[in-house]
Structure formats: C-alpha cells, structure tokens
C-alpha cells in the first residue's frame, strides 16, 4: 500500500470513529482525564512529498525507495503531498477534533547539506505549518528526526552508527529558526 493510500486509510478510520456515536463506541470524551490530549502524528518522509522541490536534498529514504527496496515500488516523492496540502489537512484535523499534532522535521528539507546553511524555503514551510496549527488551536509537537537522514551524511558517516555524525546542526536550527 502506498504512503498516500495508507494516510487516507488512517484518516478515513479516524473520521469514521469521529462519526460513531458514544453508544457505538461505549465511551465518551468525559471517560478520559481532562489532561488527555487526542492527537495524530506523521513522519516527514511519509507525509510531505515534494522531494525535489524548494531546495530539499535526497534523504536515506529516497535512496532506499528509489533503489526498489519497497515491495510495491512506492516512494515518498509525492507521499500524502502535505508540503502542498498542509492547510487543508490542518483544517481536517480541526474539524475532526484533534487537539495535537506531532510531526517530524525533514532534515533534508531544512538543512539540505546536512550541516551549514539553512534552506529558507524549508524553514518557511515549517513556520507556515506551525502557524496554521496554532491558528486552529492545535498543539504542536515536533520530532527532530524520523529515520530520514540526509543522504550526504549517510554517505559521509555511514549513518547513525558513526560517532562522528553531527546532530547539533539540526537541533540548533530548530531551536533558533523554527521556534521564533
């Protein structure tokens, strides 16, 4: 099943559950503690798509999927197209009653060379997404990394097993750039 189809399957299930009555499910919102937060999450590679747009560099997932290692030959080239459709998606999140959204940052989109210069278009995308979530009253939860290392760092260091991998670049960028 392709990433887009899987995303829509999960979204359809969520919408179906939202449409079910409390009697059908056997519980209501009041059955959960007030502090409980209903939310959803995605990973950048499976959600964003737009792998060759606005300065994003290839990630280890791009290399792996383009090598035909996925049984159905799917890639994240388009994925759920969240890079272009995030406003529609946030509206759907709000309409379904989600209170929080956890997403990962594409290191390849934000810092295409793995370290060094920040991609202004990538940074703007994350600013726009966060602003849209906040404007809809949805809590923002960010995962710094979700298995999509920039391919340039994979090639140079051999991935996360190398003690030389540099993670502070993305962390500093997120703290100083994304959280303005």
From TrEMBL:
Keywords: Hydrolase, Signal. Residues 57-66 have a biased composition (Polar residues). Residues 54-73 are annotated as: Disordered. GO terms for biological process: carbohydrate metabolic process. SUPFAM superfamilies: (Trans)glycosidases (SSF51445). Residues 1-22 form the signal peptide. It comes from the Eukaryota. One of its GO terms (molecular function) is beta-glucosidase activity. Belongs to the glycosyl hydrolase 1 family. This is 4-hydroxy-7-methoxy-3-oxo-3,4-dihydro-2H-1,4-benzoxazin-2-yl glucosidebeta-D-glucosidase. It comes from Triticum turgidum subsp. durum (Durum wheat).
């Amino acid at each position: 099943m392709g990433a887009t189809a899987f995303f829509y399957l999960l979204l359809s299930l969520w919408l179906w559950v939202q449409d079910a009555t409390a009697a059908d499910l056997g519980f209501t919102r009041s059955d959960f503690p007030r502090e409980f937060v209903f939310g959803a999450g995605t990973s950048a590679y499976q959600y964003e798509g737009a792998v060759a747009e606005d300065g994003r560099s290839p990630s280890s997932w791009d290399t792996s999927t383009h090598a035909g290692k996925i049984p159905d030959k799917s890639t994240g080239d388009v994925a759920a197209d969240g890079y272009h459709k995030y406003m529609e998606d946030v509206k759907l999140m709000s309409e379904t009653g989600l209170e929080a959204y956890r997403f990962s940052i594409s290191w390849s989109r934000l810092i295409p060379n793995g370290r060094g210069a920040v991609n202004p278009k990538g940074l703007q995308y994350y600013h726009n997404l966060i602003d849209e979530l906040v404007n809809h009253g949805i809590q923002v939860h960010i995962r710094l990394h979700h298995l999509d290392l920039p391919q340039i760092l994979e090639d140079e260091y051999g991935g996360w097993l190398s003690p030389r991998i540099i993670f502070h670049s993305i962390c500093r960028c997120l703290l100083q750039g994304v959280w303005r």
